[in-house]
Amino acid sequence: MKKIIYISLVALTVLGSCKKSIDFVPQDKLSAGTFWKSQNDVQLALNGCYSSLANAFNYAYDDGAADNAYCQYPWESTASRVSAGNIDATLDVGYNSRYIFIRRYNYFLDNIGKATMDESLRKRFIAEVRVLRAFTYYELAHLFGAIPLLKNAYTDPEETAVATAPATEVIQFAIDEIKAVEADLPSSYSGGAPNQTGRITNGAAWAILTRIQLEYGKFPDAVASAQKVMSAGYQLFRKTALTANDTKDDYSNLVTFVDDDAKQKFYKGLASYQQQFWTANEGNKEAILVSQNIQENQSYAPFGNGLRTLLAPPNIGGWGSITPIQSLVDAYWKSDGTTFTPPSPEQRAIDFNINKTPSANYINEFKNRDTRLYASVLFPGATWNEYKDGYTYTWAGPGGGESFTGYNFKKYLDPISLVSGLEYDAPQDYSIIRYAEILLAYAEAKNEVSGPDATIFAALDDIRDRAGMPPINQAVNNTKEKLREVIRNERRIELAGEGQRYFDIRRWNIAANVMKTTKDIANVIVQERIWDPKFMLMPFPQTALDRNTNLKAAQTAKGY
User: Fold this and answer.
1) Packing angle between helix 8-15 and helix 39-50, nearest 10 degrees?
2) Of residues 50, 35, 52, 39, the one with CA closest to residue 3
3) What is the pLDDT of residue 298?
4) Where found in the cell (predicted)?
């Protein structure tokens, strides 16, 4: 429902949430006594609540705060400081901005009862906002730990200067809120299949619940919630018929095709994974909740997303802001579904032979690899004729917006949107939650509950088959521990660039092992990275500490 995003700026003015801090009394909002009269008033206010999803493409930066990517411009995001371990109270990773929306949700919920409107619609609107609030509180808790739990609107700034609630209490509140209202939400909007993706449906509520329960180790509950979503009609996006454009890139020099069936499976897998994110396939049945965008044909357009600018290299019109690092590239399976063993960084530098023609040994790194690698990463020597005839990705070192790592993301780059050179104006949706994540969540949670079984392999094989990859080897991955490693790596590569890796390495307690200094293809250090156990949680920003002295004890408890 794109209007949710389009007219949200009107609602911002109506709701008066333009202040930088939640602890100022809004002076620019209309009086509740004059505004909350009609259903139209409520619709405007609801749109303002949904604007919290408007810039979800910024989740891509979270991969740069983890071990999937590097973000070269510190003024764009906090990712480069977080990945470097330069973390203190001068940093705000989203505390203040999320409380702006908490205030907006509470103001909506406290006032919607005043309007004259259809009661069934009122009930549904309340449910949508309560889920949005629960989702925002979950994000605050898993970033900051104990936080103030504000459930009502306020008029006095002192009302927000309250003690923190334990993260467990906040998470339980979020879970209870979603369960309390999920039955009031429709399976779809506008009478379509359950893929009306711009606002909260019943399926989206259960998907959010699945994510929360998985992250906090509530594995039996996560299994049950995932099953709710899996029975709701969602399915992985598949392209069943190839066009001439789909096969413009000749992969015969990289992939060994044993027969034509294998070749068809590869190209269909490549197209299916890559094109699910393209504008032409918006609203497909894999999308559960997305941030919706339109193209406006103006620079820095407020209704487009920034992906083509942030991900693309300069010769495609981008800035190379978020680029894959070597450990992500190495994580992609071989084409037979087994683990890829990379060369040493020193040997790779010799093979790459910067500023000269890469050797055959370097090209061999990309032979017979996971189809999703070719769909997701531009590596030196990779062609992309779908974008432009004769295009080949090259890299001769950083500078001028070129990647610092030697790679750029191809995932989320839509050739149609790349035609325009305008910045921050990509029109395609950005996935907040898609069905592949639910299948992965089910597989992980079910494996933790009871170990390998047929339903887990079915979920994982569905994901692999869509990408043109072979099924999981059940004979080899026949224990909880072995299958756990497969699921974790499958999750890493399937969801690369979608912001999940940051939290995954924390909840799995592997951050100390993976947040290591990263180097480029030529074995030159890109970024020194350090890990401290306190980085499991982020500090409150100093502005919040200044306004609420109750936060100081919680800040100290976190080690900041």
Assistant:
1) 100
2) 50
3) 64
4) Cell outer membrane
Q: What is the CA radius of gyration of the chain?
A: 23
- How far apart are the C-alpha atoms of 5 and 427, rounded to whole Å? 13
C-alpha to C-alpha distances, 165 to 64, 176, 438, 535, nearest whole angstrom: 30, 16, 29, 20
What pLDDT digit, counting tens, does each position of 314-368 carry? 999 999 999 999 999 999 999 999 999 999 999 999 999 998 888 999 999 999 9
Tell me the C-alpha distance between 71 and 56, whole Å: 17
Residue 131: exposure state from Cβ atoms within 10 A (0-12, 13-18, ≥19): buried
Least reliable range by pLDDT among 77-86, 283-292, 302-311, 449-458: 302-311
Average confidence (pLDDT) over 51-76: 95
Instruction: For residue range 101-132, list pLDDT tens digits in order.
Output: 999 999 999 999 999 999 999 999 999 999 99
pTM: 0.92
Q: Identify whether the C-beta of residue 136 lies closer than 8 Å to the C-beta of residue 105.
A: yes
Do 411 and 274 form a contact (C-beta atoms < 8 A)?
Answer: yes
Task: Name the average pLDDT for the chain.
Answer: 91
Scanning 145-185, the segments in alpha helix (DSSP H) are 167-181
Q: For residue 285, what are its two tokens?
A: 């049945």
Per-residue burial over 458-495, b = 16 or more CB atoms within 10 Å of its CB, e = otherwise: ebbbbbbbbbbbeebeeeebeeeeebbebbbebbbbbb
Expressed in percent and rounded to 5, the helix, strand and coil fractions of the chain are 50, 5, 45
- Which of 393, 375, 371, 394 lies closest to 383, judged by CA? 393
pLDDT for the residue 154: 80
Q: Residue 58 is which amino acid?
A: N
Non-local (6+) Cβ contacts of 514 within 8 A are: 66, 67, 327, 505
Q: Given a cut of 60, is residue 194 above it in pLDDT?
A: no
* Closest to 484 (Cα-Cα) out of 515, 509, 466: 509
Give bridge partners of residue 241 from the DSSP assignment: none
Tell me the C-alpha distance between 502 and 63, whole Å.
6
Among residues 425, 143, 460, 437, the alpha carbon closest in space to that of 303 is found at 425
